[in-house]
Amino acid sequence: MNIRIFNDKEELYREAANFFIDHVKENPNAILGLATGATPIPLYQNLILDHKENKTDYSKVKSFNLDEYIGLPKDHKETYYNFMNENLFKYINIKETYVPNGDPNKKEQSCLEYENLISNNQIEIQLLGLGANGHIGFNEPLTPFDSKTHIVTLANKTREDNARFFNSLDEVPKEAITMGIASIMKAKTLILLAVGENKADAIYEMIYGKVSTECPASILQTHSDCYVFIDRAAASKINK
Ligand code: F6R
């Protein structure tokens, strides 16, 4: 793991954005893995600014998102499909984007189709956030490391953490579709971002803990090209 601790969050996000921008400039047909949640938003803002100012071209880039809630109405602002449009896609010239299908009537089919898609499109850089319980994508603790795209029952902790985006905890979906841990580990390069003290325990476990399904992110210790960008608060439990 290549761990970088930043004093300045703005610098963290600029550098993380440059990671993607440099790759897209060198590889106009890049295949990117993207994430949702609060953490990547400033990174996406940097991509949007760069696209506006420097015209970085995404017209041949493909993107694959990690996950989606099951059962939210299509027009709900918290579907990850809408999140990606609102926070990135509509501001850059990307044309081919994929987010797993959250249709509650097609769960099995959607998992197979998405896994098939990502098997046929080698993700070059996969962006990851980190759950306070150590989840990556929506792979909650005890998810097998050999899991492919699957349906998950969201952990109470995850639903509580995500309730801030909804009117109430009751509104937070109970299920999601997510790339599995094996699907994520197939990406050539991984970059995980975490900011804030509520991620400090998970960061500690991810870096120093035993590689165990109890902390799904601990599997990243075994990836051959994994970058971790964190701020001082997220790094507060590690001795550096
Ligand atoms: C989102 C995802 C999740 C989040 C994680 C952290 O696509 O896969 O693993 O990255 O829940 O969320 P935030 O960034 O909101 O703290």
What is the strand arrangement across the widest sheet? 1-10-9-6-2-3-5
Distance between the termini: 14 Å
The low-confidence parts are none
β-strand percent reads 15-25%
In DSSP terms, counting alpha (H) and pi (I) runs of 4 or more, how many helices? 7
Q: How does the helix and strand content classify structurally? A: alpha/beta
Query: What overall geometry do the principal axes of the alpha carbons give?
Result: globular
Number of strands: 10
Rg (C-alpha, Å) = 17 Å
Give the overall pLDDT as a whole number.
Answer: 97
SSE sequence, one letter per element: EHEHEEHEHEEHEHEHE
Largest sheet: 7 strands, parallel
Ions, cofactors and other ligands present here are: fructose -6-phosphate
Helix content range of the residues, please?
25-40%
Describe it.
With 240 residues, this protein is of the alpha/beta class. It contains seven helices and ten strands. Strand 9 (189-194), helix 7 (200-208) and strand 10 (226-231) form a beta-alpha-beta unit. Helix 1 crosses helix 2. The site of fructose -6-phosphate has 14 residues, from loops.
Task: Present the secondary structure layout.
Layout lengths: L1 E5 L2 H18 L4 E4 L6 H14 L7 E4 L1 E3 L10 H8 L8 E3 L8 H14 L4 E4 L21 E4 L2 H7 L12 E4 L2 H5 L3 E6 L5 H9 L17 E6 L9
Parallel strand pairs: 1-10, 2-3, 2-6, 3-5, 6-9, 9-10
Antiparallel strand pairs: 4-8, 7-8
Helix pairs in contact: 1-2
The site of fructose -6-phosphate has 14 residues, from loops.
List keywords for this structure.
single chain; 10 strands; 18% strand; alpha/beta; binds fructose -6-phosphate; three-stranded antiparallel beta sheet; globular; 240 residues
